[in-house]
Q: What sequence folds into this?
């Protein structure tokens, strides 16, 4: 599904150069649920933002379903990012004055879909994250975990090829974190959603199938669980 080859992202030049990513290569198969771990500053956010086409790499290759995304013209890359990539931020990034449903369907309305169709899609996405009964609540009337689940609903409403999440539980207590991780797990197992999630917490890794560890912009660990290899994954790129 994803193939990354020798990905580099350098900031600055000369003596002050920061090698945020220093030659990263890996493949992610369809339906994998991958955690990216590593110390602060190891390059996790930089990697995720490049994979989600929110930032450019300095060099390297990146293909999604055979599509060489770095070679696409900017307009096509933007279109791909908007329509095929789901991204969940640490701080939810919800509009405070909008209801849960409106937060989910605002993007699809911007794409020109009708309100009725967009609302239907939003309810379907809210249902998948266990919030079908709260479409009219504004963010202030929701718990942290519920807010993050609205943000996940927004990200999955466009049925993305891949869902990226950068420390989605960083602002949540253990209970709310569990709810959010259960939602990711169900999206992955029931709906086959490919997910790449950055996390600092070791206990989160029990929800995932594979852990990639970064250190100073390089991969120093890549561990797949046997269960996943045998049962869950299709050998499909
Ligand atoms: N815009 C930037 N300009 C210069 N250096 C940057 C920039 N963004 C990130 N860096 C540097 O790149 C390295 C990787 O940063 P990144 O944000 O990817 O780390 P991270 O693993 O996500 O850390 P954290 O766990 O704290 O979120 C760090 O050394 C950081 O200081
Ligand atoms: Mg980060």
A:
């Amino acid at each position: 599904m994803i193939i990354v080859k020798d990905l580099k992202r350098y900031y600055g030049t000369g003596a002050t150069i920061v090698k945020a990513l220093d030659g990263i290569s890996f493949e992610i198969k369809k339906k994998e649920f991958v955690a990216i771990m590593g110390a602060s500053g190891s390059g996790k956010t930089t990697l995720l933002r490049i994979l989600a086409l929110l930032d450019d790499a300095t060099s390297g290759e990146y293909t999604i379903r055979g599509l060489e995304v770095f070679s696409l013209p900017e307009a096509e890359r933007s279109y791909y990012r908007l329509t095929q990539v789901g991204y969940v931020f640490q701080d939810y990034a919800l509009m405070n004055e909008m209801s849960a449903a409106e937060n989910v369907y605002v993007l699809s309305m911007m794409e020109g879909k009708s309100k009725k169709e967009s609302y239907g899609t939003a309810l379907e996405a809210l249902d998948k994250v266990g919030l079908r009964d709260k479409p009219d609540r504004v963010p202030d009337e929701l718990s942290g975990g519920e807010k993050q689940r609205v943000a996940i609903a927004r990200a999955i409403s466009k049925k993305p090829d891949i869902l990226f999440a950068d420390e989605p539980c960083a602002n949540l207590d253990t209970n709310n974190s569990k709810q959010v991780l259960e939602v990711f797990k169900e999206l992955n197992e029931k709906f086959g959603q490919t997910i790449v999630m950055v996390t600092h917490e070791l206990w989160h890794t029990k929800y995932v199938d594979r852990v990639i560890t970064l250190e100073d912009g390089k991969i120093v660990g890549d561990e797949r669980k046997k269960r996943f290899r045998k049962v869950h994954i299709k050998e499909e790129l």
User: Anything to note?
Assistant: Residues 69 and 77 are 7 Å apart (CA to CA). The first helix runs from residue 44 to 51. Confidence is low (pLDDT under 50) at residues 229-233. The chain has one domain: 2-94+160-232.
